[in-house]
C-alpha cells in the first residue's frame, strides 16, 4: 500500500492562538492541530512542532491559553503563524486581555480556554500536549476553519 500525502488536504481544523507566559515572556502562536480529547473532565490535545518557541514555553509552564479565531481574524492568524516569538513580540500590537497568571487571550476571539497541562508525548516532529480545560468562555459562533 502507498500512502497518498494529499489526503491531509481533506482534513479540516479550527484556527487558534495558543498563548504562553513564562516569567515576563509572553507569546502567541497560530495552531490548527487541536482537538477535544475528553468530556469529563473536559480536556484537549494539541500538537506543536518541536522547533517552535511555544514548545519550549509549554514545557516550562503548566498553564496556557487558547483563543478561538473568527474568520475575520485571518491577518492575526497569519501574523502569529509567520513571525517567530524569538525575534518579535507578537502580543504588543494585539487587543489582549490577561488570563490567569498573565496568559494572553485575544479580546474579540470567538471563544477562549485556559488549560492546565497534564502530559506531553513525543510524536514525530511534534509534541502532543494534553491539558485539562480549567476556564473558558464563548464570545461568538463564527469560528475560523482551516483546510491544509
CATH homolog superfamily: Electron Transport, Fmn-binding Protein, Chain A
Largest sheet: 7 strands, antiparallel
Low-confidence region ranges:
none
CATH fold group = Pnp Oxidase, Chain A
Nearest-integer average pLDDT: 95
What is the CATH top level name?
Mainly Beta
Distance between the termini: 23 Å
Number of helices: 2
CA radius of gyration is 15 Å
How do the strands of the widest beta sheet line up side by side? 3-2-6-9-10-5-4
The CATH architecture can be named as Roll
Q: What order do the helices and strands follow?
A: EEEEEHEHEEEEE
Overall number of domains: 1
Quaternary structure annotation: single chain
What percent of residues are in strands? over 45%
Number of strands: 11
Helix content bin: 10-25%
Large-scale geometry: globular
Descriptive notes:
With 148 residues, the protein is mainly β. The chain has one domain (13-143): Pnp Oxidase, Chain A. It contains two helices and eleven strands, in the order E-E-E-E-E-H-E-H-E-E-E-E-E. The protein has helices at residues 53-60, 74-82; strands spanning 12-14, 16-22, 25-31, 34-39, 42-49, 63-68, 96-98, 104-106, 111-123, 126-138, 145-147. It has a seven-stranded antiparallel beta sheet. A two-stranded antiparallel ribbon has the order 1-11. Strand 7 and strand 8 form a beta hairpin. The longest helix has 9 residues, at 74-82.
Amino acid at each position: 500500500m502507498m500512502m497518498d500525502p494529499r489526503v491531509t488536504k481533506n482534513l479540516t481544523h479550527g484556527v487558534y492562538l495558543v498563548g504562553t507566559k513564562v516569567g515576563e515572556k509572553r507569546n502567541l502562536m497560530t495552531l490548527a492541530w487541536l482537538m477535544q480529547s475528553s468530556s469529563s473532565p473536559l480536556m484537549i490535545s494539541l500538537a506543536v512542532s518541536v522547533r517552535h518557541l511555544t514548545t519550549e514555553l509549554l514545557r516550562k509552564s503548566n498553564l496556557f491559553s487558547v483563543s478561538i479565531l473568527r474568520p475575520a481574524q485571518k491577518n492575526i492568524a497569519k501574523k502569529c503563524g509567520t513571525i517567530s516569538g524569538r525575534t518579535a513580540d507578537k502580543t504588543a500590537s494585539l487587543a489582549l486581555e490577561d488570563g490567569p497568571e498573565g496568559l494572553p487571550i485575544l479580546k474579540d476571539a470567538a471563544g477562549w480556554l485556559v488549560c492546565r497541562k497534564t502530559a506531553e508525548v513525543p510524536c514525530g516532529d511534534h509534541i502532543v500536549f494534553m491539558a485539562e480545560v480549567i476556564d473558558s468562555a464563548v464570545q461568538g459562533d463564527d469560528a475560523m476553519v482551516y483546510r491544509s
